[in-house]
Design goal:
Layout lengths: L4 H16 L1 H8 L7 E2 L5 H11 L7 H12 L6 H14 L7 E3 L1 H9 L4 E4 L2 E6 L2 E7 L4 H5 L6 E5 L2 E2 L5 H8 L6 E7 L7 E6 L1 E4 L3 E8 L2 E8 L6 H14 L4 E5 L8 H8 L10 E4 L5 E4 L11 E5 L6 H13 L2 E4 L7 E7 L5 E10 L15 E2 L24 H12 L13 H13 L10 H16 L5 H17 L1
Parallel strand pairs: 1-18, 12-13, 13-16, 16-17, 17-20
Antiparallel strand pairs: 2-19, 3-10, 4-5, 6-7, 6-8, 8-9, 11-12, 14-15, 14-19, 18-19
Helix pairs in contact: 1-5, 9-10, 10-11, 12-14
């Protein structure tokens, strides 16, 4: 069987885009953001012309031979489109880069939704890390956050089926769905030796990305801005809140990007230009040849008040650009835990039929040229949250009683302590004193007072803890950021 010319053309162009299209994408990236589509600018007529020019000089790759062999000999029916998309996906997988992927028409529509007003799903940023579908961060007030998903949770099953062998987009399509429907997943968490099940009701995920507050302490007024994602409207909203704060004469500013998985590159650049003067770069990028470009603002001077940035293990990509560049360029304090460690830039290349290639085209670097890829941003002041912030949901096969020893008992003890109960130990041994404390909790909650840990008691504990975390109780990182910013403001007076 002879391959159709149109099919051959698509395979050749796919190879060309992967091999030679990167320089084009780099040029376009200066004008557009990290995630918007960059049209290829190649018409079908130009495809024909390129094919004719190349037919005598380019040795067709093995993929073309494989295409013909499959079409001629494979036992089942298979369409040309399946083979073409499979070939493109295979080329991208061979790069070994979790951030480069093929976006078919359906996936591209979903991808565009995530940088616009809203979408439907559970509200969690996911990535493929060492071949495992991994939660980068749940979004603020999303079903994922309310259910208790955490950064670095590994998604092992979706609706009872293993995620092994799925690519990231296949996993995402199974997790996402219409508002009001449920999805069941199981995750593996670092401090737990068993899979943790979640049943999450999907919802509309609005992308309101900027939240603000004024914190008043000891005659100081501190502006507090939380950024949950860098989407199309984030920089405008951020500058609106900042202008309001500055009109009130704030003494310091705290920018909270904990749990922020990133977003659009030009948006974080716009925010950085508000703070970093023109006499120093606010960030750099490096291409595949090691060539670097530095970026400068038109800002005349630093802000007259101290700036502190809050980060954690769920802060990724654009969040890390913000944190490390402010740290290096204006000596901002960075409070929290080491961030996720994504230091590359992707762009999308239109394939002409509504599908796209998402390719890593650059490394982004800090103001001083530092790469944080797979390393993360180190805080200047490391602060851990209370132990109960990191406790895993308790999953029981049977009721747990006095004298048992397990991680589930330890999680229960940490949760009771976090809720303010007087607990004798948190080492996982179920003592009689622990049982007495558990009875007090059961009584306060209107549960059957047994002193035993059953699933009903475990779920009530978890619900109380999740609500306490969402309410910002015992937020040591934020408290430290307030203290540091306030002290620095007093020093500057």
């Amino acid at each position: 069987m002879r391959m159709k010319k149109s099919v051959l053309m698509m395979l050749l162009i796919a190879a060309l885009v992967l091999g030679g299209g990167i320089s084009y994408a780099v040029t376009e990236w200066v004008l557009v953001d990290e995630s918007k589509t960059t049209p290829s600018g190649i018409t079908e007529e130009r495809y024909e012309e390129m094919l004719n020019e190349l037919s005598d000089s380019v040795q067709l790759p093995k993929v073309v031979q494989a295409f013909n062999q499959i079409q001629s000999n494979y036992i089942e029916d298979i369409t040309e489109q399946q083979l073409i998309e499979g070939a493109i996906s295979g080329m991208l997988e061979s790069l070994g880069d979790p951030y480069s992927e093929y976006l078919d028409v359906e996936t591209m529509e979903a991808f565009n939704e995530q940088i616009e007003a809203s979408f439907e799903g559970i509200g969690a940023e996911v990535s493929m890390i060492n071949g495992v579908v991994t939660i980068v961060s749940p979004l603020k007030d999303s079903p994922a956050e309310k259910a208790g998903l955490r950064p670095n949770d590994q998604v092992v099953t979706i609706e009872g089926e293993s995620t092994e062998g799925l690519d990231l987009l296949e996993a995402v399509s199974k997790i996402r769905g219409e508002k009001g429907t449920e999805v069941k997943i199981e995750v593996r968490r670092q401090n737990s030796d068993q899979l943790i099940p979640f049943t999450i009701t999907r919802d509309t995920i609005p992308l309101e990305t900027v939240y603000s507050d004024v914190i008043e302490q000891n005659d100081e007024q501190l502006g507090y801005i939380e950024i949950t994602n860098f989407s199309e409207t984030t920089a405008t909203r951020f500058k609106e809140e900042l202008t309001t704060f500055e009109s009130k004469g704030i003494d310091g500013l705290i920018i909270d990007v904990r749990g922020n998985p990133g977003g659009l590159l030009d948006v974080v650049q716009e925010i950085l230009r508000e703070f970093i003067p023109s006499d120093r770069p606010y960030m750099q990028v490096e291409d595949g040849n090691g060539e670097r470009e530095r970026f400068f603002s038109n800002t005349e001077a630093e802000k007259p008040y101290p700036v502190t940035v809050l980060i954690d293990e769920g802060s990724a990509s654009a969040s890390e650009i913000l944190a490390v560049s402010l740290k290096e360029a204006i000596h901002a304090n960075i409070v929290g835990q080491t961030s996720f460690g994504k230091g590359t830039v992707q762009t999308t290349l239109d394939m002409g039929d509504g599908s796209s290639l998402k390719l890593t085209i650059l490394k982004w670097l800090s103001a001083e040229g530092t790469s944080i890829h797979e390393v993360g941003v180190e805080p200047t002041v490391a602060v851990k949250q209370p132990d109960y912030y990191y406790s895993s949901p308790i999953v029981l096969d049977e009721t747990v009683k006095v004298d048992a020893v397990s991680t589930n008992v330890r999680f229960m003890q940490e949760m009771l302590k976090g809720l303010g109960y007087d607990i004798d130990r948190t080492d996982g041994y179920f003592s009689s004193e622990t049982a007495s404390t558990l009875k007090a909790f059961q009584d306060d909650q209107g549960l059957s007072v047994t002193g035993d840990l059953n699933q009903e008691t475990a779920e009530r504990l978890q619900g109380e803890i999740i609500q306490r975390i969402r309410d910002g109780k015992d937020d040591r990182q934020k408290e430290e950021a307030i203290d540091i910013t306030r002290q620095q403001a007093q020093t500057n007076e």
